[in-house]
Design goal:
By secondary structure, this protein is of the alpha+beta class. It has helices spanning about 1-20, 55-60, 75, 90-105, 180-185, and strands spanning about 105, 110, 130-135, 135-145, 150, 150-160, 170-175, 190-195, 195-200, 205, 210-215.
């Protein structure tokens, strides 16, 4: 699934260029009408991010309209859609993520790309790219500075995959000072169809690690 999705998204992005784990949380709702305005992007310019903002967050002045355009929700927010990023507007954010990832990681050679090739939109927030392997699993960790997800301080993004398979993951790792519970309720779980039939797909929250992880 991961490789197929990556190839499809890469093809669509080329076409656009030519034209110009602990617990699953929540249940996906169908109402994505709460607008948070235009997502600012140098990769995909037509993102209209209308992500739900729970009442609990609004009461803490974490309303969507106050989220700055540099917030990582505009890059990683597709994870909130049951780790799928296939329903609007999450599909636009998913396109951004895969385009961004392609600027940082050379998937064909399983290595980080030079700093000069990183997306200029997020280049100043990435401190380094650290590659690690665990058997056949390859993980690229991107330590961050001055980065936030829904206004909560973000320590790193992890991107991993199993070589010669379709398995992959994307992870948000928050700092120890982050109030992760303020964002967890935005991550929904929904049923999707896989090779074994229908299953629940959604991010897992690791309270000890202060992370949210999507297995793809």
């Amino acid at each position: 699934m991961y490789q197929n999705k990556f190839l499809l998204l890469s093809t669509s992005l080329i076409a656009l260029a030519n034209l110009s784990g602990c617990t699953e949380v929540g249940t996906l709702t169908k109402d994505f009408s709460t607008s948070i305005g235009q997502g600012v992007s140098t990769i995909v310019k037509d993102i209209n991010a209308s992500i739900n903002t729970p009442t609990s967050l609004k009461s803490q002045n974490q309303n969507a309209a106050s989220i700055p355009p540099t917030d990582m929700v505009f890059l990683m927010g597709w994870m909130e859609d049951g780790c799928q990023g296939s329903i609007a507007p999450y599909n636009k954010i998913s396109d951004r993520y895969y385009a961004f990832k392609d600027t940082v990681i050379d998937m064909d050679n399983s290595r980080a790309k030079p700093y000069s090739q990183w997306s200029p939109e997020y280049r100043d927030q990435i401190q380094n790219v650290i590659k690690s392997t665990d058997g056949s699993y390859v993980t690229f960790s991107l330590p961050l500075k001055n980065a936030y997800y829904r206004k909560q301080p973000l320590k790193a993004i992890e991107i991993g995959y199993r070589e010669e398979t379709e398995g992959a993951h994307a992870k948000l790792v928050f700092t120890q000072s982050a109030n992760v519970t303020a964002v967890v309720s935005n991550f929904k779980t929904r049923k999707v169809e896989g090779m074994g039939g229908m299953y629940n797909s959604g991010a897992t929250y690791n309270a000890e690690e202060k992370s949210l992880n999507c297995e793809l």
